[in-house]
Design goal:
The protein has 4 helices and 7 strands. Helix content is 26%, strand content 29%. By secondary structure, the protein is α+β, with helices and mostly antiparallel strands.
């Protein structure tokens, strides 16, 4: 059984888009105002091939079962990144891959010069929020930057220093 994480590859685009949308539908996430509608969802390799961007995929039993990325938080200070599109298929959950992913992305964010990491999520993604809290995120009262995800009402931030 092969499991772990690796950087996104061009050949991952189609299956990754399908897996991420499947997870979003599973959680009843609105299609508008969330990652579901992001045009980059179908072109993740290209979207994260820019400076200070990274996206890694989750591999379990030789299948892509999700992923997560970091990128500069749009319309914010240069030192703040955003944890983006962290969604795992049910078959990848509860295996420690989320913690492994977050730690890898924090490491990359620091090498890119980021000192804070922001995220947005949904209220019903309780297990994800537990993972974020366990890895140093705390809740904040208002959104930051301009993610376009107006349907995500839970905001969190973490210091990377």
């Amino acid at each position: 059984m092969l499991c772990g994480i690796r950087p996104v590859q061009l050949t991952d685009n189609k299956i990754l888009a399908r897996v991420l949308r499947h997870v979003l539908i599973e959680f009843g996430v609105p299609k508008l105002g969330t990652a579901y509608a992001d045009p980059e969802l179908d072109h993740m390799f290209q979207a994260y091939s820019k400076p200070n961007h990274a996206y890694w995929v989750v591999i379990y039993d030789s299948e892509i079962l999700g992923g997560a990325g970091i990128a500069p938080l749009q319309n914010s200070e240069d030192h703040i990144c955003e944890l983006q599109k962290m969604y795992f298929d049910v078959n990848a959950r509860g295996k420690g891959l989320g913690k492994q992913m977050i730690l890898k992305l924090f490491e990359l964010a620091k090498t890119f010069g980021f000192t804070q990491c922001y995220l947005e999520t949904m209220p019903n993604m309780a297990d994800a929020q537990k993972l974020y809290l366990a890895n140093g995120f705390s809740y904040i009262d208002a959104p930051m930057g301009d993610t376009g995800h107006y349907s995500c009402p839970v905001w969190m931030i973490k210091s990377l220093v």
